[in-house]
Amino acid sequence: MATILCYGDSLTWGSIPNGGRYPEHLRWPTILNALLGQQHHVINFGLPGRTTLWNDPFLEGRNGLSYLQAALETFGPVDLLILMLGTNDLKRHFNVGAYEASKGVEKLIEKSRMPNTYDFAPPSVLVIAPPNILSPTGTVAESFTGAMEKSQSFHQYYQDIAIRNQCLFLNAAGEVEPSTLDGVHLDSQANQQLANAIHAVIVNNI
């Protein structure tokens, strides 16, 4: 049995556009587990607002780098780590772009390969470039001012990071786009499509 840890933000957690959380069976990690079969264990460790490595002054505990080692040891040994972070890095108050987000992802990859308390073998890593942000509306509009343009570069920088660090790679923007209800989060159909795309990437690599 392979243990797969999905380390992400609200797109992994299962946020409904403009508020709420999808039932478990509609979140892409759960759908992925169903596609892979019960011989695998897919863990949804998404958290709304999580960044790659930035401390958010308005949300506590969202620095992804600070919690990754604890997550890997909590659920370890982990065979495959799926990283889909960076959307929240583009919030206006961080004042960074897709390049900086990709460097944050690279730090997460490095952290996952460091020695740990229990001598777990380092996991394989799948880097997912997040979906492009559409025109943000509703409750997320102010936070993501200017993020739509920045997100267009996710795939380029993330692919470079994945290749350089010998990781699997998926460009989510080539598979799904956010709901027009808020321009950031995924509808239920996109969750299914993303799970299908991830399954296709990893089925021969776990």
UniProtKB/TrEMBL annotation:
Coiled coil: none
Pfam (any one): Lipase_GDSL_2
InterPro entries for this protein: Ester_Hydrolysis_Enzymes (IPR051532), SGNH_hydro (IPR013830), SGNH_hydro_sf (IPR036514)
GO molecular function: hydrolase activity, acting on ester bonds
Record-annotated SGNH hydrolase-type esterase domain positions: 6-188
Gene3D superfamilies on file: SGNH hydrolase
Name of the protein: Arylesterase
Native organism: Marinomonas hwangdonensis
